[in-house]
Structures are given as C-alpha cells and as structure tokens.
Amino acid sequence: MAVPDGAESMRPFLPSKDFEASKAFYQALGFKTLLDGDVAIFGLGASAFILQRYYQQAWAENCMMQLMVDDLDAWWAYIQALDLPGAFGVQPPKPPAMQPWGLRVAYVYDPCGVLWHVAQRRPGAAQD
After folding, report:
1. Alpha-helix residue ranges (DSSP H) falling in the chain
2. Given this model, what pLDDT does residue 124 score?
3. pLDDT for 76-96, tens place per residue?
4. Are 118 and 106 in contact (CB under 8 A)?
5. How many CA atoms lie within 13 A of 12 on its CB side?
6. Residue 104: exposed, middle, or buried by beta-carbon count in 10 A (0-12, 13-18, 19+)?
7. Adjacent-strand bridge partners of 44
8. CB atoms within 10 A of CB 37
9. β-sheet with 104-109: strand ranges across
10. What order of strands is seen across the sheet that includes strand 32-36?
11. pTM above 0.90, yes or no
C-alpha cells in the first residue's frame, strides 16, 4: 500500500510556562504569528510549530528544536542585539561553535527552558 499524498509538514507542539511571554519571545526572534488563539502557531521559512498553554518542567527542559540557517554569524549578531536575558529573563545564548557532529551551532533558550539549536547549513549537505 502506498503512502497517501498530501502530507506537507510536521509541526511539533512546544510548551509554555507563561504563554504571553513565550509568544513575545518568538515574535522578537522573528517568527511570524500564523495563528493566535487557544494555541499559537509560529512560522519561519518553511517550518512552523504550535505553542501551547501547557507546561511540564521535565518536558520543557528536555525539549530541543533545531533551526537551520544559511548565515549563522548574521543570526548570532541578531540574537545578541535582542538582549534576550534582559528582555525575557532567559539563560544567556551560547555563541556559535563547531560541534563534534559536524555542525556549527549557537544555542538559545526560550522562557520555559526549550533549547534551540541554531545551526549553520553546510554547502552540499542535503540533509541540512
């Protein structure tokens, strides 16, 4: 049996401890609000996620997302300019560094502890 056509994308659900603060955080990072209601859907490029009004500390602090970018240095300058710790009380972002698995990555924490890997795409690496 063939897989049915029409699947377009996957959107993970992310937790929020303070829904309004998390929405403001993602808007500041440049995510576009696609829906704002009982949940909020945020998109950037071809990807999106669903922010929910649900928080469980163990889940939030073990949840990770990856954002693949073409120019990590430009993203890092943008992230630094936002002063996320001052504006949102989050852990300080960690600057770009080459990781053992071959990607150069900067790390950003959201207001409830979700860790974002902002990673540089590699030329010729289709999986990136």
Report:
1. 19-28, 57-60, 72-82, 84-88
2. 87
3. 999 999 999 999 999 999 999
4. yes
5. 9
6. middle
7. 47
8. 6
9. 64-69, 115-120, 104-109, 94-98
10. 13-14, 47-51, 40-44, 32-36
11. yes
